[in-house]
Amino acid sequence: MVRPFSISLRIPLCFLAIALLMTLASTIFMVVQDRRQAMRYMEKTLNQIDETYTQALAALIWNMGFDEIRLITDGIHNIPGVMHVIIKDDKESILAEKGKESATGLHRSYTLYQLEGLVSSSIGSLGVTMDLDALNQNIRFTALRILAARSIDLMLMGLVFLWIIHHLVTRHLKTMASYTQQMNLDRLETPLRLHGRKPDHPTDELDIVAQAINAMRISIAESLEQKAEKARMEGELRAAANIQKVLLPTRPPAIKFLDLAFSFEPALEVSGDYFDFFPLDEHRLGIVVADASGKGIPAALIANAARVLLMANPRQQDAPEALFRTLNQTLPEAMGMGHFLTMSYLLLDTKRQEVSLVSAGHDPVYMKKASGEILPLKPPGYPFCRLHQKTFDLRLKSLTLSFEPGDTLFAYTDGLSESLSPEQEPFGEQGIQKILAEPHSRAAYLIQHMKKKLSDFCQHIKPSDDVTLVAVCFCKAPNEEKANA
Question: How far is the first Cα of the chain from the last one, in angstroms, to the nearest whole number?
Answer without folding.
Answer: 99
